[in-house]
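Q: Predict the bound structure with 3DU.
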Amino acid sequence: MKTKEFLVVTTSRNGVFRLSFRVNMEQTSKKRESSIVLAFDFPLETSENRDNLFTKAERFLELVHPYFCAVKFNHHLVLPLGLFNGVQKLVKKAHDFGLMTIMDCKVNDIGSTNQVIAEYYYAAGFDALIANPFIGWHEGLQPVFDVAKKLKRGVILLVYMSHKAAAEGYGQTILDAETGGKIAQYVSFAKKALKYGADGAVVGATYPEKIREVREILGRTVPIYSPGIGAQGGTGHSALEAGARYLIVGREITLAEHPVETAKKIRDLAKP
Ligand code: 3DU
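A: Predicted complex:
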């Protein structure tokens, strides 16, 4: 009982103690019996309808939140609503519902810029950010990991994206800096996810064979987050079978005629 109470205290977002993002995600997923991360994406709104977007997103979250372990925001909401006083309120709402929050900003700039980006998103309450390992460590990702460590938040790395052209970047053959041998770019990124202590690795559900390969490298140390289900052609079943720990699902739910039923159905397929 005592241990349980202690854990509750350590998960407090306002408290000094905070579990690592990875552990918090695992516990939240188990507690909520869901491995699904909602990609909180809505289509482009006309300028007349933009004022309604906040209410639309808020209502949507109120309806579907029981079926998810986390909500992943993207520019779809940050651009029209702004971060502070806009998305920040939705982040708080998600937290009030017991959900974890991820900002999919795919950090991809020089270190000093990345540091400012990370500080702002974490200040708005996000539990983790997604970053692009193409930028490398020194004066690239290092400041992001430093800020995350300081604030006890997470960093998730892109390892192999879900879209058709993913192979043009993530699938290139490169020379391994350590061995001098040939290696696939995504294999190198998976190794870096371990080396940097990333909290997650994104691998597209549209490429289950890549999930399998990356999972062999990461084992259980770095969980795989897999987007690309439904609208992009991937299936939750094959992603999970190949080793994904979390499924990221957007349009299949946000554009569904019956989002609650759809969310429930997808959640039931992938209970942890
Ligand atoms: O295709 P969906 O509507 O389920 O949305 C997928 C979300 O995940 C969307 O926000 C997209 O930007 C993000 N994402 C990928 O689809 C693929 C990646 O490799 C990384 C992120």
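A: Residues 39, 41, 74, 104, 158, 161-162, 202, 204, 227-232, 248-252 surround 3DU (CB under 6 Å).
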